[in-house]
Design goal:
It holds the Pfam family Exo_endo_phos. It is built from 7 helices and 12 strands. The chain is an alpha+beta fold. Helix 4 links the parallel strand 7 and strand 8.
Length: 263
């Protein structure tokens, strides 16, 4: 079982309920994004929780980005980054091997139309797709599988966000971003695991703005994904978004996305 969630600041999330969620999850591996902390800044119950091995990859720019992997067992190997010189210290990708499966935590840049942030996102995508192609070939040549979990910051189809008409010119739902994600599935050959288990439905959404009543109205986006090699995707038995019952019970503006994979 693998879970992923953008915590929107790990220290804040820990104060609001992440620690209790971690203690109760049945996941074997938990992927975190936007941790925005160094290991030394975290309380002991987050930096070294009982029963978990922690790999934290912070960004060189303090207080930004950051990804992590929490696992029940010690990884066989850990890799940070994806071979990009520009994004080597950006805290946006960490990957670990657990037996015949590699699990990665990805925080793809969010972007903002008409600003350098969108240009950064485009550069990231341009370098990351070839990595995905190469990495799939490597793991499958070894008889292994890969799942890249995380905040991909792109809603692929109209069913993946509530107010799609109003967002057609906004980062996260731009035609060129959606085409890029199609290439991940069609050219690189990965599978959107949650969509494969929940075809033809709206959502399930994973992120809701803190502004207005987005959460109460379920006006969300499905941008937190499990993107897996076909062999592992075929073993997915159940996928669920762990949406909080109430707005005031949230410990992030994202919800955990948990998938059960058969052994």
């Amino acid at each position: 079982m693998v879970a992923t969630v953008n915590v929107n600041g790990l220290r804040a999330a820990a104060r609001k309920g992440f620690t209790e969620w971690l203690a109760g999850t049945k996941a074997d591996v938990v992927c975190l994004q936007e941790t925005r902390a160094e290991l030394s800044q975290l309380p002991a119950e987050v930096a070294d929780p009982e029963g978990w091995h922690v790999v934290l990859e912070p960004a060189a720019a303090r207080g930004r980005a950051g990804v992590a992997l929490y696992s029940r067992g010690v990884p066989d190997a850990v890799r940070t980054g994806f071979g990009s010189a520009e994004f080597a210290a950006s805290g946006r990708y960490v990957e670990a091997d657990f037996g015949a499966v590699s699990v990665a935590s990805l925080y793809l840049p969010s972007g903002q139309v008409g600003t350098p942030l969108q240009e950064e996102k485009e550069r990231f995508m341009a370098e990351f797709l070839p990595y995905l192609v190469r990495r799939r070939a490597e793991v499958e040549a070894q008889g292994r599988e890969l799942v890249v979990c995380g905040d991909w910051n792109i809603a692929h189809r109209e069913a993946d966000l509530k107010n799609w008409r109003a967002n057609r010119k906004n980062s996260g739902f731009l035609p060129e971003e959606r085409r890029w994600l199609s290439r991940v599935y069609e050219e690189a050959g990965y599978v959107d695991v949650v969509r494969s288990l929940h075809p033809g439905q709206e959502g399930p959404y994973t992120w809701w703005s803190y502004r207005g009543r987005a959460f109460d109205n379920d006006a969300g986006w499905r941008i937190d994904l499990h993107v897996a090699t076909p062999g592992l995707a075929a073993r997915a038995e159940e996928a669920r978004v762990e949406r909080a019952l109430r707005h005031d019970a949230r410990w992030s503006d994202h919800a955990p996305v948990t998938v059960v994979y058969a052994d």
